Amino acid sequence: MKKVSFAEFGGPDVLRVIDAEEPHAGPGRIRVAVRAAGVNPVDWRIREGQVLGAHPVELPSGLGLDAAGVVDEVGDGVEGVEVGDHVFGEGSSTYAEFAVLSAWARMPEGLTFEEAAGYPSVVETALRIIRESGVRSGQTLLVSGASGGVGSAVLQIARDRGITVIGTAGAANQDYLRGLGALATTYGEGWVERVRELGHIDAALDLAGSGVIRELVELTGDPRKVISIADLDAPKLGVRFSGVAGSVPDALAEAVRLITRDALHIPVEKSYPLAEAALAHIDSQAGHTRGRRVLIVRQPASGR
Question: What sign results for the dihedral spanned by CA atoms 146, 149, 154, 155?
């Protein structure tokens, strides 16, 4: 099978599409013929060799956590899913024609593989950091870097829970944020005062790692009310860095519930063939994403 791999840490140029042995579903796991794989910021952080305790790496390594595809192997002890089912979920080395998933759910009706691949890690992260922030219905949450996949999910989930959201993003994404129900403002000089004019901040999330931790602490008045998923130096300022996933099965179940209710939609900004994984990483690292980026994976000639 074809698989994206890297043998050394570094820039996007270390990524290679190689021929690799197919993985197989062990107990409690399923294997899918991957149709699409989500591209997440954690992927390029792993590729660069950033120290992420939740994702230890042994080289050479594959990449990718999220996938949508067709079940083609079911491991021992797995119930409620059959070969041929269309699922989305989380596993390892999903930038490949076949991948083993450790958590999955059936794809909601009407969702394409391309769309479904963008949800698993994003929704789990969004649910986790909203919970960790302690923000409640009737309060206001500030989201720095709100237009990407996690930000898009946070805005919609928070709105569904009665939380007011203020989102910061580039000028081109202001209408996008407003369309998701947020009060929107731009980055740049004077952004702290612009946020203050929009309302009192009860909690804040740093999703972009753009060096705004001090300002977020200033706006909330308490470092314990700020959560970062992008700045590894956040703990130096008393801010929690959230990088360890909670229950992915629970997150997938919540994603299905929200999608089915039309309460959650994360657009795919751009899709790439598997051979252009490096370009997908370049674009992801550049930021300013509106929604998600995904890899479209071609299946082997056997059609499995």
Answer: positive
Longest alpha-carbon distance in the chain: 59
> Tell me: the pLDDT tens digits for 122-173?
999 999 999 999 999 999 999 999 999 999 999 999 999 999 999 999 999 9
Helices 248-260, 149-160: axis angle to 10 degrees equals: 70
Candidate from 65-79, 88-102, 283-297 with smallest mean pLDDT: 283-297
Residue with tokens 């407003």: 178
Long-range contacts, 221-226 (Cβ 8 Å, 24+)? 225/133, 225/134, 226/133
Contact residues for 56 (Cβ-Cβ < 8 A; gap 6+): none
d(C-alpha 251, C-alpha 121), whole Å:
9
CB environment 120-157: b (16+ within 10 A), e (fewer): bbbbbbbbbbbeebebeeebbbbbbbbbbbbbbbbbbb
- pTM assigned to the model: 0.92
